[in-house]
Amino acid sequence: MYRFKPPFNFPSSIAHGIRTLHHTSWKQLSEHQTHFENVGPMASLLKSRSVIRFRGPETVKFLQGLLTNDVRKFDEPIGEKTSTLPTSNLPSASIPPMYAALLTPQGRFLYDLFLYRPPRSELKLDRTGSRPGSSGEPFELFADVDASVLDELLETLKKYRLRSKVDIENVANDFSCWQCYDVGLREKSSHAEEPEAASVGWGTGLDRTGMSASSGGNLGWQWFKDPRLDCLGFRGIFPSNTIPPLVEADKETDDENYLLWRVEKGVAEGSTEIPKRDAMPLEYNLVGLNAISFDKGCYVGQELIARTHHRGVIRKRLLPLRFLRGDGEALEQKVAPGSEVINPASGKKAGTVTTALGCQGLGLLRLDEALKGTSALTIQGQENVKVDVVIPDWWPSEWFEEQQHRTTVG
């Protein structure tokens, strides 16, 4: 559990001053003016993330038996859904990244990974810009991982490797992770509405930047839609000595603003916000974040995940929270992670605050208590603090149907 100071550029919560009912949808919040609006696309170098590289002929087979998602997609022919316009230094289509997790044998969360397959050299121009690059290079994937557990993750992966023909390297000094985000960014990214954005890689796999027009090697890296949710923006791995395309000098901002962006959407990331060896992946909404495949077959921790999913009983989920005074005004820096959230109407514990940032946070809450709507929740021992539960608009409708069915049966 983690507590953060408010980001420097935005000292107040983006929802400051908004009066709401006990339950608020993100659509309602988006109707109000926020500090992110009218700023334009922002980009953050993610200091909390590092990069590792898998290289070797058995890379896919190795990761397929470990991770929650279907890594075999990186070995499949590129379909129309990932096709893009031809470029001078990249293939006309590329494979989108994938979000996945590594679990304990008991099905508890350990680490999350964003997997990328870079375009092969023979599909790009060489450094002379006159012919394709050399072929025959080994298969490789890059992974964007939590920097705070990098050494531990590498040790765990190498423990599982055994005789698999795959090398696992720490390339954190050579590559960096970036996120680009903005209010309404996914609408702006269409060719018709934002041709400039569309021309520099704001799509599934598109990069027509001039810097990569006639060079191979490390150039030609690109932005991809965040594989979790469109509303999170765009993500990418880039060489550490470069600034990604579309990042203007005055639009690079501290990565705590990206944290605030995620907290608003109810999305946790990394082994601190998703407690290592304790968190249940389905309670932290990893299914809705496209991190789990139920068709791939066996992987470490798969039995519990499959059983829980098919039984359809998820009693707790991670939700975005807002901390308010009694008059509905935002309350900054008064709630710490680990604080218990109470439903005063029933006197029962609704859940626990897992992340706090200014007057916003994330909480793992019991849905039967959190979504009753009869009265505002409060913090145990701080009854003057009201807790507003925000229901993200990306939640699948069946999550509500499950809760309504259990309430009716109960």
UniProtKB/TrEMBL annotation:
<protein>
    <submittedName>
        <fullName>Glycine cleavage T-protein aminomethyltransferase</fullName>
    </submittedName>
</protein>
<dbReference type="GO" id="GO:0016226">
    <property type="term" value="P:iron-sulfur cluster assembly"/>
</dbReference>
<dbReference type="InterPro" id="IPR057460">
    <property type="entry name" value="CAF17_C"/>
</dbReference>
<dbReference type="InterPro" id="IPR017703">
    <property type="entry name" value="YgfZ/GCV_T_CS"/>
</dbReference>
<dbReference type="GO" id="GO:0005759">
    <property type="term" value="C:mitochondrial matrix"/>
</dbReference>
<keyword id="KW-0496">Mitochondrion</keyword>
<feature type="domain" description="CAF17 C-terminal">
    <location>
        <begin position="315"/>
        <end position="396"/>
    </location>
</feature>
<dbReference type="Pfam" id="PF25455">
    <property type="entry name" value="Beta-barrel_CAF17_C"/>
</dbReference>
<keyword id="KW-0809">Transit peptide</keyword>
<dbReference type="InterPro" id="IPR027266">
    <property type="entry name" value="TrmE/GcvT-like"/>
</dbReference>
<dbReference type="InterPro" id="IPR045179">
    <property type="entry name" value="YgfZ/GcvT"/>
</dbReference>
